[in-house]
Predict the structure of Zinc chelation protein SecC.
Amino acid sequence: MTTASSAAAPALGLTAAELEELDNLLDDLRTRGEEIPQWEFCDGFMTAVICSRRPIAPAEYLPMLLGDGAELEVAEGEPLPLLPAFADAAQQARFLELWDRRWNEIVTQLDTDVKTLDDERTFQPEAMDMRGAVASLPEAERAEMEGQEIPSFGQVWALGFMFAVENWPEDWAAPRDKEAAQWLDDALDSIVALTEDDTGKPEVCMYNEDGPPSTSQARVEAFGEAIWAVYDLRQLWKSMGPRVETLRKAPEPGRNDPCHCGSGKKYKKCHGA
């Protein structure tokens, strides 16, 4: 599946400057729509759409993420109309260009056979250690954020992933095969675990390896399990393909009934001959 902009876009990761640009774009979109999520949420959502059982077109998934959820009517081969959240066509085009770059990177990573999380080709969610970032701030700035609820490492990413799962329940319904259904449940459980708060003892900082502890070791391990779960989901749905709707065959007329073609002859003397 390709996304909105270009089927030939290279699988090239985003630079730090481009990630910051995406954050700024989303901040601007939020001035026109309060429900516009953070980029970490978007990345989780994108990953789930990529892993979905059937290809979901941008005209269907982008309004769910950045609009009112209503699928856009777009003729095949035509560009997406301007979504209300964007200031103009140029802003939307730039967002989609960066979106496509990240999309292609994820697809390449998930379709690459890797054995360890240390492999540089392994999929890496755009997950943020916000608690580590806040803990690394100067004391005066930390004091300004006192009392604010700060998400755990990977929590916002996992919420974005599950947002996509919950909005396309038919595409994520358990298959009939018991082994495949268990595979699906186990993988989703690993991601759901990240949607929960990290209440363990802070031992490491994922924001800065030299920063103050902000994340439990159990959370780091759960994050690794979630990455492998994404690989499992990608493999599961690719192996099974889109869900096939079984059509019930209309019963054939009796041999002495009038033929359905309207010839006036009995079925046995016409199409049933």
